[in-house]
């Protein structure tokens, strides 16, 4: 059994760790992110500084940083989610999440499903008006959409969206989790 998970907001001191994780093959395969200092600063510091509406978190397992998760309200980034909004019904206040296990030794032990399960509870607590969490995933990323399914998400659509990775054909599956009654 894995130790307790924790989620803490990212800090400037985390940028180097995020950069390192983004360079690991298992992360780079689906994130395909520019890992230069300037790009990591540009894309992750806004959450820290409060200049972006996204909220980024370091995932800790037993107090050790093992991964990353971010969330945002989909309609806060309409240009970034145009294809998703055209593909599925996105109610006002709906969230999306994106995540990765950064530490290679932690991959393949069920941590992804657990991360998602526990993080959605944090989302419901912190965003009381959010009716749902909607997550598009590259169809080829079986581990990711399998983790969503294991965490209680339901597949609601499939379609083409601009891929994050040049290795992908753009086919995505979309999963949704409704806010439970009383959450």
TrEMBL record:
It comes from the Bacteria. GO terms for molecular function: acyltransferase activity. It holds the Pfam family Acetyltransf_8. It is an enzyme of class 2 (transferase). Keywords: Acyltransferase, Antibiotic resistance, Transferase. InterPro entries: Acyl_CoA_acyltransferase (IPR016181), GNAT_dom (IPR000182). Its EC number is 2.3.1.-. Residues 5-180 form the N-acetyltransferase domain. This is GNAT family N-acetyltransferase. It comes from Promicromonospora aerolata.
